[in-house]
Design a protein that fits this description.
heterotrimer; A mainly alpha; B mainly alpha; C alpha/beta; A: mainly alpha; ABC transporter involved in vitamin B12 uptake, BtuC; 18 helices; globular; B: mainly alpha; two-stranded antiparallel sheet; two-stranded antiparallel ribbon; 15 helices; 4 strands
Chain lengths: 410, 365, 508
């Protein structure tokens, strides 16, 4: 299945830029007509980033694990470990120490998952779920012991110092003024870009860096190649001298570490406390982005941006969510037209139906209920699983039981 | 041969529980608490008659979650969707139950029927996705759980299906008229839900289905050996679908006990998180109706008696951690035992692997 | 240009024993450098064991292996690779979702600073190899997009990348279509032109005669002949493979009746990967007769059996089982119409190993009386009938409550046969029914199959065991490469004819 159709269309950076510009134009148009100018405000874009990073890190965690062949349902638990360790050690020694300890805690939890599923061979889903349970209980337990006497209570830690932020000098203020001028399209662009360079936490940068880093390690290094083969065909890897067990231990530890970093972000950057239930299911959304992103770091990044965006909008202004529907409708219908021209009837039909649905809802409904937006990522994931079943390329042996020296059991 | 089976059957859960007790003791000692005292506290509190009754009530709900999970397990299916199936089931059962008035028995039957049907239908989505599109039921169930939670929260709004009582912050479904109430039994200082008998009946039904019917045989066979079942004529996709639906239907019933015997309406204060409990109980009870019953009571016992810890300055979460470690230890124990058994068997047959290497494995598949 | 060419591999007096069976004894082999050397033999001839010893998977009990003049003891595949021996397996070990280059270099990646992969170096080395040896594969193609022939070339590239100069190919043409076979042979000829040596395991005589420079024949665990294609013929090779003595055909009366219990016309079946496993197969079986299906394993037998049982469906042609159109019936329906099925792989397809014996009685019959009535399983009936089977078929077991896994292979098979005969089936499909079974059990199972025939059933006996086929069959059909290539009678055939048919040689 060579790159066909619209993938080829997006195959060069130049073309991607054109596509993005086109979408942006549509966004600006919709903003103008609906008055929902908040969509491209700098507030919205920085909120998007803030909401996206935890999901991104959890998603990258899920990616690492599944690429190595093990499904990690325990991402949520590892995230919780990260929120707690980040907040507590951040409180004690400063935010970056918190980050460090979060990473260590996450890696150890990941290692536990690895030992249970790889060495001992218990079911991956059970291991993940149990880890979630233990993590939730343990953090609450230790909160009760440590937080209470330090100014917090059993579900909230004492306030934590946050890592520093940076603002790109000059650029930031210029963009802000352009945004303030409310010029069609230009202000929108300025708004989005402004949010990306103003008051950005260093940890955000760290999180973003994990994307190209993940890509480089998995696709450009020896270790990464072995990780991928452990997920695609561990028997083949073993036959060529790869120690699949060891590779999986390391990959899953990294998985836990990344998820925990996502958690630390929640308690250190997105807020300045640990709060029980902070993760809010983001570990599972992370899993969803892996599927949405077709098991590639770039895809996980796009997915986390998308889900972060909807999360951010929900928090800011309800009419923005409503306006997004209009954007979806227009883009989907245009895409459908394009696919139709390219003779991809089925894709065109699906896209057209989606666009029409979005358009109808937009016209009929004033406000999208908050609850629907909360499960939007989950719904999208299901739709992706159904409609993109053929295009999805999960690692072939992810989830299968592998024992050294034996054949794969189905 | 069966003797040793029973031995191993009990040895695994017992060793898992012992291990978790040890681990919990360690954590308690870290905090400076005395583990023996703590466990004594738990024990004595948990076995107070009033609390035993409360535990039985809770266990009757847990039991259903365990049976639901067990049905899936027999076919090697993971029904993590118990959460969503339960929530939607009990919600719609409450709504329908609160909207009509029927003669007592009928009213209750209607509520039960709605709960089971909705739960089964929600699970059917996962089942259909699996057989039609090969989507892992683990992933789809998790996604559907979130969607279910969102849908219920949305509908539980005074503007829609919910209602808000005067002077209360709590939103719930309309209260079910008394014809839809299950009687309770006052015993030993507590109120026992008669629902527990219903749960027991479900357990019996499960056992009969699995061991005495053709459907049950097919279900077990598919779980033991997919290929052998296929060769024997079992329609695998149909089996998978039906099993998910059945498991979901029972999951839908999990909240009915509370509904019929206690609150008589549904509100957001209803518990969540039955999925992991159900799976844990099925594992602890080895998918056996009596084993799950013991496990369900044990689980409820742990949770209820944890309440006393609070009064003594010990966070109740030690119990949650114990539950989590029990789940891990028991699965590890099963796996290790399975490996041991296999090795024993192979030794008995006499290095079976080294035999006649010309056997199959050639060009077929 | 007759220069004494040094033997690159010399095997002398190799012996390998397993509990209960001697897989190889007195094996002698001499492979000359720069040749394609074929090793032929039937199933059970000992080829696989010899190969495993040559590439280090298995240690010989006696004898020597010499590579390029040096005696070798391989402790594992790494040692064999170090000695220059590379094995191209029958079942490919590739990751579909990765590129050709990635699959080839895994485990031996050239690197920068020990961490990053030096793709330039890898690519140039790869291209060197593919150019030098004429392998038509591109480094950046996704393996999932390759044909079977392409994948095989990747496997070959894998061993060449690691510096192998002796390649062992195990039944390489088993999964290829004719054009791909030709491509493969061209590649092999290029390889030896460059000075490499190829060891080629096969049972397909025509191909072997076409491409090899030297042939070693194995039979019953030992090497029986070493020849060149010029000095022999397919006929002679077949004779050597099969052995001069064919089992005595037992004169059984044919009770063939008028009813056709099985009627297959022009049925073809395509596997998931596109390969046609069965091509226009036609077979008929009447009541009261035993039709044997002979052939080396892997030529479509299992697909044929599964097709009859409705587990897979053909894309063309018709199959009638007991007068009903099987292509539109479920396996359940086919079995319930009176078909008994003894699968080839009993532990995978015929039994629930951890379950008790009496529970296994239910398997396959869970919808028919007396085991089931309506929705209920009649446990009593199952147990009673299990006792009967244990009694009648002399199944050695302490009780019917014992797990099936605890019984020996022979007793398991006896029970299975007893179970399948229980419903007085009108069609019995028996695939390798006495494989891995002790002599006593074999005799009993043979008796029962004949008894079934005498009672009017039609028996389809698929077997790789010539003794069995000759002892039981009224007629024998030979299957090769998914096609029925001959129909013979035991009395009226010779070893040569049978061997030729089984190995696909045209009657010269």
């Amino acid at each position: 299945m060579k790159t066909q159709g619209w993938r080829k269309f997006l195959s060069s950076p130049g073309r991607i830029a054109v596509a993005i510009a086109g979408v942006f134009f549509i966004v600006a148009l919709v903003e103008y007509f609906t008055g929902a100018t908040d969509i491209t405000s700098s507030g919205a874009s920085s909120a998007t980033l803030r909401f996206a990073i935890p999901i991104l890190l959890a998603g990258l965690g899920g990616l690492w694990s599944e690429r190595a062949g093990v499904i990690n349902i325990g991402l949520e638990g590892m995230m919780i470990v990260g929120t707690w360790m980040g907040a507590w050690f951040g409180f004690l020694y400063g935010p970056w120490t918190g980050v460090l300890f979060a990473a260590i805690g996450g890696a150890l939890t990941g290692l536990l998952h690895a030992i249970l599923t790889v060495r001992i061979g218990i079911d991956q889903a059970v291991s993940g779920l149990a880890i979630n349970l233990v993590a939730a209980g343990a953090t609450r337990y230790f909160s009760g012991i440590y937080f209470v006497e330090n100014g917090g209570d059993i579900s909230v830690s004492p306030m934590v110092q946050q890592p520093e932020t940076f603002t790109v000098p000059g650029v930031s203020s210029v963009l802000a003024s352009i945004e303030g001028q409310d010029t069609f399209f230009v202000s929108s662009v300025a708004g989005v870009l402004g949010g990306l360079v103003t008051n950005v936490s260093w940890m955000t940068l760290l999180g973003l860096l994990c994307v190209p880093l993940t890509w480089w390690i998995l696709w450009r290094t020896k270790f990464g190649l072995r990780v991928r083969f452990s997920g695609e065909n561990p028997v083949a890897a073993e036959s060529l001298g790869v120690n699949v067990y060891r590779v999986r231990y390391i990959a899953i530890s990294i998985s836990g570490m990344l998820a925990a970093l996502g958690g630390a972000y929640l308690s250190l950057v997105a807020s300045a406390v640990y709060r029980e239930g902070q993760t809010g299911g983001r570990g599972f959304i992370g899993l969803a982005t892996v599927i949405f992103g077709n098991w590639r770091p770039g895809g996980v990044f796009s997915g986390s941006l998308l889900f972060g965006f909807t999360d951010a909008l929900r928090v800011r202004q309800a009419e923005s969510v409503h306006a997004v529907l209009a954007i979806v409708a227009v883009v989907a219908l245009l895409f459908a037209a394009y696919l139709f021209v390219m003779r991809k009837r089925r894709g065109a039909a699906i896209s057209a139906i989606l666009g029409l649905l979005a358009g109808i809802v937009f016209l009929q409904v004033e406000v999208i209920p908050d609850e629907f937006v909360t499960f939007f990522p989950n719904l999208v994931t299901l739709l992706v699983l159904v409609f993109m079943a053929r295009r999805l390329r999960p690692p072939a042996m992810a989830g299968a039981k592998y024992r050294k020296g034996e054949e794969i059991s189905e | 041969m069966t003797r040793s089976r029973i031995f191993w059957g009990i040895a695994a859960p017992l060793s898992a529980i012992s291990f978790s007790l040890l681990l919990a003791s360690g954590i308690l000692m870290l905090q400076g608490a005395n583990p023996i005292q703590t466990f004594q506290l738990l024990f004595s509190y948990g076995f107070q008659p009033r609390n035993v009754v409360a535990e039985l009530n809770q266990a009757s709900a847990y039991y259903l979650a365990g049976i639901s999970a067990a049905i899936g397990f027999k076919m090697l299916l993971f029904n993590i969707g118990i959460d969503g199936q339960y929530r939607l089931g009990v919600f719609f059962a409450a709504v329908v139950g609160g909207a009509v008035t029927l003669p007592p028995v009928l009213h209750i039957l209607l509520i039960v029927f709605v709960a089971a049907t909705v739960g089964g239908a929600w699970a059917a989505i996962s089942g259909w996705l699996k057989i039609k599109y090969g989507v892992s039921e683990v992933i789809s169930s998790i996604m559907l759980n979130f969607i279910a939670a969102g849908l219920v929260t949305y509908m539980l709004n005074p503007l829609r299906l919910g209602e808000q009582a005067e002077g209360s912050q709590n939103i719930s479904t309309p209260t079910i008229p008394e014809s839809g109430w299950l009687p309770n039994i006052e015993v030993a200082g507590g109120t026992l839900y008669t629902f527990i008998f219903f749960s027991a009946v479900v357990g019996v039904g499960y056992w009969i289905l699995i061991t005495k019917t053709v459907f049950g045989f097919n279900l077990r066979a598919t779980g033991v050996s997919f290929r052998a079942a296929l060769s024997s004529g079992v329609n695998a996709p149909r089996m998978i679908f039906l099993t998910m639906v059945l498991s979901g239907a029972i999951a839908g019933l999990v909240g009915v006990g509370t509904l019929l015997s206690d609150t008589h309406n549904y509100s957001l204060s209803f518990p969540s998180g039955y999925a992991l409990t159900g799976l844990a109980l099925a594992l602890l009870g080895r998918n056996h109706p009596i084993g799950i019953a013991f496990a369900a009571f044990f689980w409820a016992f742990l949770e209820r008696s944890a309440g006393v810890l609070d009064l003594n300055g010990i966070p109740t979460e030690i119990v949650t951690m114990m539950q989590g470690t029990i789940v891990i230890s028991i699965v590890v124990a099963y796996e290790l035992i399975k490996r041991l058994n296999l090795r024993q068997q192979q030794a008995a047959v006499g290095s079976h692997q080294e035999e006649a290497p010309e056997e199959s494995k050639e060009t077929d598949k | 240009m007759v220069t004494p060419v040094a033997a690159i591999i010399e095997v002398a007096g190799l012996v390998k024993r397993y509990p209960g069976v001697v897989a190889n004894r007195d094996v002698n082999l001499q492979v000359d450098k720069g040749t394609i050397h074929a090793i032929i033999g039937e199933n059970g001839a000992g080829k696989s064991t010899l190969m495993k010893m040559l590439y280090g998977m298995v240690k010989p009990d006696e004898g020597t292996i010499t590579v390029e003049g040096k005696a070798q003891t391989f402790k594992g595949p790494q040692d064999a690779i170090a000695a220059g021996i590379g094995m191209v397996h029958q079942h490919f070990m590739l990751a579909d979702n990765a590129s050709v280059l990635e699959n080839v270099i895994l485990g031996s990646e050239p690197s920068k600073f020990g961490v990053a992969i030096d793709f330039e170096k890898a690519r140039s080395h790869f291209l060197d190899i593919t150019k030098k040896y004429g392998l038509a594969i591109n480094p950046d193609d996704l393996v999932a997009d390759l044909s079977v022939g392409g994948r095989q070339r990747v496997e070959i590239a894998k061993v060449l990348f690691r510096g192998a100069n002796i390649l062992i190919l195990d039944e390489p043409t088993a999964v290829l279509v004719p054009q791909e076979v030709n491509e493969l042979f061209e590649n092999l000829k290029d390889l030896i032109k460059s000075g490499l040596t190829v060891l080629f395991i096969s049972h397909k005589l025509q191909e072997v005669l076409e491409v090899s420079s030297h042939i070693t024949v194995m039979r019953q665990g030992t090497t029986v002949a070493s020849l060149t294609p010029k000095e022999t013929s397919a006929r002679e090779l077949a004779e050597l493979m099969v052995g001069r003595q064919l089992p005595q055909a037992k004169p059984t009366e044919s009770h063939a009746g008028d009813t056709r219990v099985l009627d297959i016309q022009g049925a073809s079946y395509r596997q998931g990967d596109g390969r046609e496993a069965l091509t226009k197969v036609s077979l008929t079986l009447s009541s009261g007769e035993i039709l044997g299906v002979a052939g080396v394993e892997g030529n479509g037998q299992s697909e044929l059996v599964e097709m009859i049982l409705g587990i897979v469906k053909p894309f063309e042609g018709s199959i009638e089982v007991l007068g009903n159109d099987a292509t539109s019936m479920t396996t359940r329906a086919i079995r319930d119409s009176g078909v008994g099925y003894i699968p080839q792989d009993r532990s995978r397809d015929a039994m629930l190993l951890p379950e008790s014996l009496w529970e296994n009685r239910i398997l396959g019959h869970q919808a028919t009386a007396p085991i089931a009535s309506g929705v209920w399983i009649n446990k009593k009936a199952a147990q009673v009938d299990s006792e009967r089977i244990v009694e009648e078929y002399d199944v050695r077991t302490p009780s019917i409550r014992v797990a099936a896994a605890a019984l020996s292979g022979g007793n398991q098979q006896k029970f299975i046969v007893g179970r399948e005969m229980a419903g007085s089936p009108k069609l019995v499909v028996a695939a390798q029914p006495t494989r891995g079974v002790d002599v006593g059990a074999q005799a009993l199972i043979w008796d029962r199959l004949v008894a079934a025939k005498e009672n009017g059933a039609g028996v389809l006996l698929v077997s790789a065991d010539l003794d069995e086929l000759f002892a039981l069959s009224d007629r024998i059909a030979v299957i090769f490469n998914g096609q029925i290539v001959a129909e013979l009678t035991p009395a009226g055939t010779t070893p040569e004819l049978l061997g030729l048919a089984m190995t696909g040689a045209k009657a010269a």
